[in-house]
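Input record (one chain):
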Amino acid sequence: MARSRSRRGAARRRGRRFLAGWREGYPLGWQHGHWYGRCEAVVQAFLPPVVRRPIRVLYVTTGKGYPYTAIDEGMVQTLQPMVEKLIVANPLEQDVRAIAVRHRPHLMLVLDGMNMPPEQVLRIRDAGIRAAIWFTDDPYYTDLTARLAPYYDYVFTLERNCVPFYSQLGCRAFHLPLGVFPQEFRPRNPPLDLRGDFCFVGTAYWNRVGLFHALLPMVAHRRFRLSGMWWERLPDYRRWRDRIGPGSWMTPLQTAAFYNAHKLVINVHRAHDDPTFNRNAAGIRAISPNPRTFEIAACGTLQLTDWRDDLALYYVPGAEIETYASAEELAMKIEYYLTHEEARQHMALMALRRTMRDHTYISRLSVLLDVAMSG
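The corresponding structure, as predicted from the sequence alone:
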């Protein structure tokens, strides 16, 4: 009898827990699903169409491996439906010149170019093949890129301030930011255990360390996550270490999951004169938004970013993206948008729409091909 009562009591407790979980989880699931549906509708409505060009393109990968592998894969998948024929070559594993001579592409596009021998570029151009390079880390390695750029017919850089730098070297230089590959960076419905109020993903360069050292005590009551390398640089790292990790590069899909799981994502641009892995002896100041600007917006998450002079060319501050100038202002805006859901969601949707319409790899590569094939 006692055992029977015990079983009935346990069953009632399980029933109460199930009912409580259902009452909490059902509206939360509906809310997340509804938001995801709104975001996906924007993606489908504003992604640009693919225009196929009757040309052959030889795409030369960075040859660097991760994290550049993801960019290479996104470029290849985007280019394939855009051209008549796409040939892909790895400069560390293949004879790019032999491949170029065999396939006779209308254009050779090299990403980064650090592993592409300049003498091969010259020989490919001597064979009557146009050569373009796209620098994706400017201005931080201009000591190295300055030696490579003059070997190409066209030089594209994601940093506007580098255009005159390359032009002075005799290059035909153009500004072209990276953008996003929407098959990776797009709205998704991440697991509940990953969700939080805000996050930051990136390496702990010293300007970022200074910002978060000042910010975190002001927002300690919020659920946040920092991810990336070198966050042990924080003076009070021990206090926050349970909210930091993973301490390594994440894949694009993992990064996108982080962005999707948080209501706000913070963006902090790297300082142009940060001494860590910096080969910018010319002291070129960065004024263009980093690739992360577009990736965050593509996930349908509201972004809080520090200012760059070119930012307003890509997003409308206060309407599509939010900015801050200090840790105190950032803390204030975090609190505001976490307590004003409608304003947060509206701005996030506007940024998502702008990104899918204007800032995907499709849009960027369309510009590149138009420029490189026009001369």
